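User: Could you check the structure of this?
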Amino acid sequence: LLLLWRRRRGLWGKVEGARQRQERSLVQMEMAARRFREQHPSVNVVSILTLPLPELSRKLRDGSLPPEHVFYAYVGKALQIATETNCITEYLQESETQLRKVKLTGKPGLLYGVPVSIKDSIDCQGHDSTLGFIKNLNKPAAEDSVVVQVLKRQGAIPFVKTNVPQSLISYDCKNLIFGQTFNPLLYTRSPGGSSGGEGALVGGGGSILGFGTDVGGSLRFPAAFCGICALKPTGNRLSKKGIISGVVGQKAVAAAVGPMAKDVESLALGMRALLCEDMFNLDSTVPPLPFNEEVYSSTQPLRIGYYETDFFTMPSPAMRRAVRETKQLLEDAGHTLVPFELTNVDYVIFNFCIRGIFADGGASFLKKFKGELEKNSSGLLLWLAKSPDWLKTLLSWIAKPFHLLMTCIGFAPFFSTVDEVWILHHEIEEFCHQFIAQWKKLNLDVMLCPMLGPALSIGYPGKLSVAVSYTMLYNALDFPAGVVPVTMVTDEDEEELKGYQGYFRDWWDRTLAKAFRGSVGLPVAVQCVALPWQEELCLRLMKEVETL
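Assistant: Sure, the predicted structure tokens are below.
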């Protein structure tokens, strides 16, 4: 007992140390912003913060806007949003040194002088990538991830790291070390996750360009919940070297790193900057595909598939309306909209995604929690992973006919042999080929799909892991997918929600209805999808949707 007490005390000591570092970071930001204001009282910070990224970038590169004015304007705004939402875990104080170096460089890069925010799980030299785990504290990264290296070479200035849920396997944003992050639009709502700190910071205006990761919607949930845009590229379009995964080694569901911003043109600029020779030289596993301007800037009418529901998670009234209204606007603009029928989404989510990620019976996932003080945000998955095999099998047998406790299907029976995992991977490949065949039979360019929304109340994402169906499908397929906010919840949507029962009328459906309630005025997004390696086409549809 004494040893256990001492060990727990030691862990709490590490947590307290990390929280003090976080507090010191905010103090450093406050001092830096105040010092700049005192030295430059005539600088119009508000006018800088209202500039969209493409215009800001042009002014920085042509010298009409000094980099330090932009940098300290965003340090001050980021501090305000961090104070309100608890989204920043660490200020990268060396960014001030980098700011001075950037001014001495010759030819400015595409992101010259642009402050950027970085998700906790993306390595920055000299800083922890915790994933919300105490065991990862005080283990600073030896070098920058490739994405961060390329951003710096393009003149960008990474200046903060942002909060995540413990383990990343969650679309909320809470961990024992840094606590809960709040939605900047409504503090009682989740900012989404796992890139939730990024969503809150960019959504609140404290960062003009952020970078996160996505293995089931972790870029798209925060963007949709916080009313901004995000792009999940094809898994290997951007380098993942130096980015820490929630479940290391699994190949069934493709993870990706991607940008988050207030508008689509900013996402495109972020992709242009990253898809360069530096990226391809630093990570030779990334295909050398530069950004295709011709595809992105084309004005040819598109043939767009669409669906309003996946027949697994019933869309909220606002979600369904968002797709219908966007479809009509696209048709009015001269595009062709073609109904696309989804089938067997429940099978894909449980047999491909959840079983794929936890094909080792959850052993890798469990290992990360060993020795931790608290297991929040992934409680049900954790409990199931720890359960004996006979109980998992019993639960899955009980659950199947009633669509209850569906998540446990992912753990029972386990894939215990290599050949079973290979069979799974083959099934996923076959599903992907069938999906593409259906796509090509309809002669589609892109797809318009629902995106879960509005933002759920804090605490609900952990109870509603099944609601990832709209996003995780495109991780299983490894298709590029982005989100664009298109509308807000109306009083009519709220009234219609009273009749929401879901497809299975079970506990999950009832809980989701509760999580949607009281959302008038919150943003709702749609999802735009393209075939693998067609990020520029995906962005083109996103831009069209945003414009309309």
